[in-house]
Specification:
Layout: E1 2-7, E2 12-19, E3 22-30, H1 39-50, E4 59-63, H2 69-86, E5 90-93, H3 95-101, E6 109-118, E7 121-129, E8 135-137, E9 142-145, H4 149-156, E10 159-161, H5 182-186, H6 205-214
Parallel strand pairs: 1-4, 4-5, 6-10
Antiparallel strand pairs: 1-2, 2-3, 6-7, 7-8, 7-9
Length: 221
């Protein structure tokens, strides 16, 4: 099944085209400032590199967060647009699962995937990889003070993985890592295109400020 994958939960975005466990093409882009718009050109590049048209895509997979609000919103909008245009399902997958699947070299173990949640905090989730390479999510998504991450990892007997995090390896989630967790992705229901949005983890800073200033929730339509 030819699948287009987008991942942009951190400032290192990526796009990949995979067929089962084979990576046909991939591109990495920066997700800061004016480079935000680089994700859509990267989609065109991977399709051209693999010689696949939009009509040849059978499924779109999008990293569903948590992570950077703006980057996730861009990736989600592109994924929804392509899925709608191609009349194919959109499958959201945890960006923290993609992070663990991006570890090199791949090895079994228990991992604590970590990404920045701002305000001195981290999004964290425990995942395990068995000897066959199958991944399972072992715990709920949490928001912890950065100072508590190491203690949680020690208690779980887990290796910390994440951009800029201390631990055995520093890892960013890559779209191409979806090829390593195809069974997990196949078990996830397709999203409803009209209502689905990435799981940002928390409200955007601008929304938090607006609600604090106005004393009421921001209505979004």
């Amino acid at each position: 099944m030819i699948t287009l994958v987008l991942e942009a939960s951190t400032y290192a975005g990526s796009v990949a085209l995979i067929d089962g466990s084979a990576v046909l093409a991939e591109r990495a882009v920066a997700m800061r400032g004016r480079e935000h718009e680089a994700l859509m050109p990267a989609v065109a590049e991977v399709l051209e590199a693999a010689g696949v048209s939009v009509s040849g895509i059978a499924r779109v997979v999008c990293g569903a967060g948590p992570g950077s609000f703006t980057s996730l919103r861009i990736a989600g909008a592109i994924a929804k647009g392509i899925a709608l245009a191609a009349s194919v399902p959109l499958v959201p997958v945890s960006s923290l699962a993609l992070l663990v699947a991006s570890r090199e070299p791949q090895a079994p173990g228990r991992f604590l995937a970590v990404v920045d949640a701002m305000r001195g905090e981290r999004y964290v989730q425990a995942l395990a990889v068995d000897s066959a390479g199958e991944m399972t999510i072992e715990g709920a998504l949490l928001i912890l003070p950065a100072s508590e991450v190491a203690a949680m990892a020690h208690a779980l007997g887990a290796t910390v993985l994440g951009p800029g995090e201390s631990g055995e390896l520093q890892v960013v989630p890559r779209a191409s890592a979806a090829a390593r967790i195809t069974n997990m992705i196949s078990s996830i229901d397709a999203a409803g295109l009209e209502a689905w949005e990435p799981g940002y983890g928390r409200l955007a800073e601008a929304q938090v400020k607006w609600e604090a200033d106005h004393g009421r929730p921001l209505q979004q339509g």
